[in-house]
Amino acid sequence: MLSDAEAEAELARLAALLLAANTAYHTKDAPEITDAEYDAAKRRNFALEARFPHLKRADSPSEVVGAGVAEGFTKIAHEVRMLSLENAFEDKDVEEFEDRVRKYLGHSGPLAFTAEPKIDGLSLSLRYENGRLIHAATRGDGETGENVTENAQTIGDIPQVLTDAPVVLEVRGEVYMSHVDFKALNARQKELGGKIFANPRNAAAGSLRQLDASITSSRPLRFFAYAWGAVSEPLAETQISAINRLKKLGFAVNPLTILCNGAAEMLTHYNTIEAKRSSLGYDIDGVVYKVNDLSLQRRLGFRSTTPRWAIAHKFPAELAWTRLLAIDIQVGRTGALSPVARLEPVTVGGVVVSNATLHNEDYIAGRDSKGNAIRDGKDIRVGDWVQVYRAGDVIPKIADVDLSRRSDGLQRYEFPVICPECGSPTLREEGDAVRRCSGGLICPAQAVERLRHFVGRGTFDIEGLGAKQIEAFYRDGWVQTPAEIFSLRARFGTGLQQLKNREGWGEKSAENLFDAIDEKRKISLNRLIFALGIRHVGESSASLLANHYATWPQFETAMTHATIGAGAAWDELLAIDGVGAVLAASVIATFQNERERAAIDALIAELEVQPVVTRAPVNSPVAGKTVVFTGTFEKMTRAEAKATAESLGAKVAGSVSAKTDLLVAGPGAGSKAKAAAALGVETIDEDGWLALIGST
User: Fold this and answer.
1) CA angle 378, 384, 390 (to 5 degrees)
2) 335, 439 contact by CB (below 8 A)
3) Which of 42, 56, 118, 672 does the annotation list as catalytic?
4) I need a labelling partner for 685 at 20 to 30 A (CA). Which of 283, 408, 550, 691 fits?
5) What burial class does residue 57 get, using C-beta atoms within 10 Å of its C-beta: 0-12 exposed, 13-18 middle, 19+ buried?
6) 426 in a structural domain
7) Are residues 160 and 260 in the same domain?
8) Rounded distance, CA 633 to CA 640, Å?
9) Ramachandran region, residue 638 (left: φ > 0; alpha: ψ -120 to 50; beta: rest)
10) How far apart are CA 14 and CA 651, in angstroms?
11) Would you tell me how many other CB atoms lie within 10 Å of the CB of residue 191?
12) Can you name the residues that pair with 353 across neighbouring β-strands?
């Protein structure tokens, strides 16, 4: 029921909420909220992006896995990415998961799944070569993790040597701590005056990620194996057989892992595990289902951050009451004012919560964006007793207010009409749920957030230049634009005012930063496009644009000469599968904005932008061609057909244009078939496509 403006505002709120939660949970091992709110927020974000694909943000949480590597650890790149899982919350979600799998595969026969407890711990990947443990790495951001090899070697459940294993084997699983060991550890910490951990997950993560391995060795960590990454030869033909193979190799696997035939049996096992949850002796937060046949897993493949063949069925959320101490306003990269509740710390399901999202000014006032009452119209005031809804390891949500405990004299909260960061007026456009600062780049909060995005892990990811350093450099006038990052050495490497003379910096650390910046002058096209922070352009859409235009000059020229809503360049942009009119207009507007363009040109002068390298098989008959699929297919789904085409080096477009090389049309092709005929584009049916690519 949301308008575009309302959906855009909600996506902005969710992005800020989920980013803060990921950092607190994955990087700092100090979650500020619980799993339930996090899951609910991520679920809502996915639903909104599905409903409004043209509004998907540059910093979309759906493109994020984990969080960046903490300072003090060296990095290890995962040969096979460590992805997150899609979540299910209701029985119907599990049934829909099975239906989606069947539909994607075109499979109507028996279909088996494994079901196993979802351990609430820290993901770890162990690489063995010739039977010996070579290194261990945390998940990190999915592509790069922290090197915790020495620490992992102290865990008794992790074998140092394997017998009869593949030459290369990456075993993946979860590091955790039992309830008994957690209680004993906190008792010892209290006696020694050390840190008291909020829950077993924090204790396990904090223990594994110690820079001193001797501290890790003193902590009672355990490990369950449940998956694998790179392997030199298959472990087995099915998921359950592979798990049994890992058990024979000496790894602990969860004894509650079973094989299920369909959603009904999966849900039965979910209920069984939930009933046993309190007596297991370790924390779990749901049940994971995976397609058992590994050949079907390969066919199903992956989305950008999750596999299509697995889902995590989460346990319900939890609630708690606490006092609202203050309401702070945070200003985001696009000027959105986001209210954050500062709470008297309260434990919700084992996690200490001190912050919660308040969404926007309407939510605080007790109404929705259309003026309808929520919470029976009860507004939220500083000093109130509020109910915190646990739904994720991100900033939780305030669900209700207890008016019976409201003190006399509490004042209604007045949402700021002046930006607290720069003093500019705040504006709320008609139909928009979010109030925004009108200051633009003169607003330090917006400028800093744009710079933080630029050096983020999905963009330039410059070693030693994180949010803290960016904020300090901006505050002192050293870095105001992205281009100025690359002139730091020239401006502050020598002379009276040198980086090495700043507090916290020395000659070595300054040189290391300059070198790290220089290393990132070479940047892939997709990362550069994402780094620009163009509204509505996320990691996946940046990749779509990069793959289509291949080089910066081609992309830059097309955006410079395009006209919003008309012309060949506009049509070409919209023909990219996954690019909508709102995203396209946003990109063109950015390149044709005088100030934005000056900043982009200054940046490009400092960089060497790498063209997209096509990794198509040498003998692929469709490598480099632009293919459009339309109509109904009988032998494979359209989703599978598109994935196959891309794996063979083809570009898949969403509409037919003069640049289309091939239209694959099933029954009901409609307007695309007519457009192809008018343009003289070659058209084949499903059988012709399968024959062309050599499938049967």
Assistant:
1) 85
2) yes
3) 118
4) 550
5) buried
6) no
7) yes
8) 10
9) alpha
10) 32
11) 8
12) 346
Q: Give the whole-angstrom CA distance, residue 597 versus residue 676.
A: 36
Nearby residues of 283 by Cβ (< 8 Å), 6 or more positions away? 119, 120, 121, 176, 179, 199, 200, 201, 350
The conformational region for residue 5 under phi > 0 = left, psi -120 to 50 = alpha, else beta, is alpha
Q: Which two tokens stand for residue 65?
A: 């896995």
**Shared-domain flag, residues 329 and 462:** no
Question: Which string of DSSP letters, residue by residue, matches 229-286?
Answer: EEESS-S-SBHHHHHHHHHHTT----TT-EEEESHHHHHHHHHHHHHHGGGSSS-EEE
Claim to verify: residue 233 and residue 262 sit in the same structural domain: yes
The tally of domains found in the chain comes to 5
CA-nearest of 131, 301, 244, 390 to 645 is 301
Of 250, 294, 276, 312, which is closest to residue 123 (Cα–Cα)?
312
Residues 117 and 194 in one domain: yes
pLDDT surpassing 50 at residue 67: no
Helix H, strand E, coil C: the string for 326-374 is: EEEEEECCCCEEEEEEEEEEEEECCEEEEEEECCCHHHHHCECCCCCEC
CATH code at position 664: 3.40.50.10190
| Tens of pLDDT, residues 155-168 | 999 999 999 999 99
> Residue 618 falls within a domain, yes or no?
no
Tokens of 594: 């005088």
Specify whether 136 is located in the same domain as 149: yes
Q: Which of 520, 544, 573 is the last residue of a domain?
A: 520
pLDDT digit string (tens) for 279-335? 888 988 899 999 999 999 999 998 877 899 999 998 876 677 899 999 999 988 778
In a domain, 434, yes or no: no
**559: how many CB neighbours lie within 10 A of its CB?**
22
CATH of the domain at 501: 1.10.150.20
Looking at residue 19, its pLDDT comes to: 77
Domain interval for residue 8? 4-64+317-405
- Is residue 118 annotated as a catalytic residue, yes or no? yes
Of 70, 87, 83, 73, whose CA–CA distance to 24 is shortest? 70
Distance CA 464, CA 486 (A): 14
Residue with tokens 């994935």: 643
Share of the chain above pLDDT 90, in %: 42
Q: Looking at residue 324, which CATH number applies to its domain? A: 2.40.50.140
Start-to-end C-alpha separation, the chain: 45
- Going across the sheet that includes 87-88, the strands are 87-88, 310-314, 284-291, 112-119, 258-261
Q: Final residue of a domain: which of 576, 610, 644?
A: 610
Token readout for 340 is: 């954050």
29 and 175: one domain? no
pLDDT band at 134 (very low <50, low <70, confident <90, very high): very high
Statement to judge: residues 89 and 59 lie in one domain: no
Residues 587 and 652 in one domain: no
CB contact burial 59-76 (16+ within 10 A = b; e otherwise): bbbbbbbbbbbeeebeeb
